Amino acid sequence: MAGHPPAAAEPDYWLQEARLPAGGEHALELQLRVPTRGLHVFGPVWLRLRGRFGVLEGQRSYACSGAVKVVPDTAVSEEAFYKTAKDAMRLLDQLTRTRLRGAGTEFECLAEFRDGDDPRRIDWHSSARLQRLVIRQYQVERHRDVMIALDCGRLMGAAAGSATKLDCAVDSALMLSRVALRKGDHCGVALFDDKVLGYLPPLAGPQAYHSIMDSVYNVQSRWHEANFGVVFAALQARQVKRALVVVLSDIVDADTTGQFRRALAALAQRHVVIFAALQTQLLGDIARAPVDTMLDVCRKGVTMRLLREREKALHSLRHAGVHVLDVEPGQLTVPLLNQYIELRERNLL
Asked: What pLDDT is stored for residue 99 in this prediction?
């Protein structure tokens, strides 16, 4: 008996012999490993029967169709969640204990007036009824919208260790959505390259995380150039409420940044934007490598020019009021969560 597991499986082909008793049944088991996230489909199975004396053989194919979902570890492992985001979770606990009373917009309670309190927050009606001054205390609004725009274009297919930049972005997007939903915010996701590949509006509740995970676990880079304009136009049309928009992508040159800034200008007037730029490991390796030949000189010269243009582009985005993270793909999660918590704590969302 022979069969084809999914192409990404290890092993990707199996062959096993068995002696079948007449009129009986025989079960065959195969253990395999699928290290790549996505939806993986099993291929056909071939059954070859050999006669008693080995003279005659017969073969038949069976579809045996089936599929298996492989999701990132962070999507299902609570242990991985707390381990990876330990620093961020410590800040979340601190944020829970120390609310920003008086700085938010959502009413929390009435409290006795004390020296240093803002007189404009005195509730005169309640003060007259209680025969003492009381003020209205407010907390940071809890139910905010968080939209994650995930770039699936050409640059995100670059290698980042044993994975790709897109794999790391998916991990971080799932972690951010889990934290946001736990804090009572609504979370959605938009997928794009040269067009919008998928759009899930901000959701809340127990099923929201599973919906987000189903939207992103199978996304793959199609090697198309990213077009920021189309996804920002979709956000402008569909996301009416002010939100935190998190863009997980990368840029290389000033021309790309010019297109990005023009598309971002109208969006930034309504929303708070975080742009997470994922560094390309190959460029860093070349920049740090020793120079031995003329080819090394040329390679390093081109690399340094690309890195300078990239830094210039990120500087222009910061100057335009965008919150920029410039990190290695595998180190994205904790800085991204901390940036989200900081903006939430400062009541900027």
From this structure: 43
pLDDT digits (tens, 9 = 90+) for 186-215: 999 999 999 999 999 999 987 899 999 999
**What number of CA atoms fall less than 13 Å from residue 118's CA on the CB side?**
8
121-130, 165-174, 253-262, 301-310: the lowest-pLDDT one: 253-262
Residue identified by tokens 């609504």 is 186
Q: Which residues contact 340 (CB under 8 A, 6 or more apart)?
A: 146, 176, 179, 180, 244, 246, 274
Per-residue pLDDT, averaged over 59-74, amounts to 81
Which distant-in-sequence residues (6+ apart) come within 8 Å of 169 by Cβ?
A: 150, 151, 156, 248, 276, 278, 329, 332
Residue 322 confidence (pLDDT) above 90 = no
Question: What count of Cα atoms within 13 Å lies in the side-chain half-sphere of residue 229?
Answer: 6
Q: Which of 225, 266, 262, 226 is nearest to 247 (CA)?
A: 226
Tell me the backbone φ, ψ of residue 61, rounded to 5 degrees: -105, 140
First to last CA, the chain: 59
- CATH number assigned to the domain covering 73-96+144-344: 3.40.50.410
Q: What distance in Å separates the CA atoms of residue 41 and residue 320, rounded to the nearest whole number?
A: 46
Q: Where are the domains of the chain?
A: 2-70, 73-96+144-344, 100-139
Cα separation, 121 vs 134, whole angstroms? 9
What distance in Å separates the CA atoms of residue 214 and residue 217, rounded to the nearest whole number? Answer: 6
Q: Tokens for 121, please give them.
A: 């927050």
Mean pLDDT of the chain: 82
Dihedral over Cα of 171, 276, 159, 234: its sign: positive
Q: Would you state the pLDDT for residue 256?
A: 65
Peptide bond into 5 cis (omega under 30): no
- Only one residue has tokens 């968080």, namely 146
